[in-house]
Amino acid sequence: MRWLFLLLALTFPARAADCPDCPEMVAIPSGLGRLGDDAAPFTVRVAAFALARTETSVGQWKACVAGGGCAAKAGLRWPEDAMPMTNVTFADAQAFAAWLSRRTGQHYRLPSEAEWEYAARASSQSMFPWGGSMEEGMAVCQHCDPRFDRRPAPVGTMAANAWGLADMNGNVWEWTSDCWFPSHQDRPRDAIARIEPGCPKRTVKGGSWYYVPYQSRSASRVGEDARAFGYDIGFRVARD
């Protein structure tokens, strides 16, 4: 399956950045997406949107700080510009999206959980977008690639999925806009975020360098305190 995954990844949807410091955005087509593990998938209808090709980088965060939209973060474990930005709370991620919106006149935001998983799968039906098991060189997770066994990789290092999105599986967990619900049961059949006022936890997706391969599957999800931050939680932005 890996050869087919890499072949499909050669033809990416249109992508562009709205400003020199803005993330490169990939056009995601509308369609039906599946949420959850293979044993009990939940189908949703997803409208077209755009998603950042990579996780937000340290360099992009620095541009937001310089522009007055984000707070400087001391003590980053990996402060190089090409590394994924970590140590960010849910509110920090929202602040970055708001800064991009002001700068570009476009509506940036965090993706919903449904949008995130739909984009991560990129029309695949398997545990990972390339197949049913982890393969070296495809994701950054615990014992997945000897180059990055105890640290994340620079954004965009690993092979992109069939829609041109890098590191959806592994590297760092990514904030979504959804409040945390233990299951998909009773959720709406569209991809709009599930939000309750004042919810204490938000959903993070995709696994990270710190966790085992199973946590990097496309369906992986965890509820995280919205005030939490750490060296394995980052984010990427969506745009309407």
TrEMBL record:
Q: Which domain of life is it from?
A: Bacteria
Q: Does the keyword Signal apply?
A: yes
The UniProt record lists the Sulfatase-modifying factor enzyme-like domain at 22-239
Residue ranges of coiled coil: none
Provide the leader sequence positions: 1-16
**Claim: Signal is one of the keywords in the record:** yes
Kindly give the InterPro entries that the UniProt entry links to this protein. CTDL_fold, Sulfatase_Mod_Factor_Kinase, SUMF_dom, SUMF_sf
The protein's name is: SUMF1/EgtB/PvdO family nonheme iron enzyme
* Species this protein is from: Magnetospirillum sulfuroxidans
What broad taxonomic lineage does this protein's source fall under?
Bacteria, Pseudomonadati, Pseudomonadota, Alphaproteobacteria, Rhodospirillales
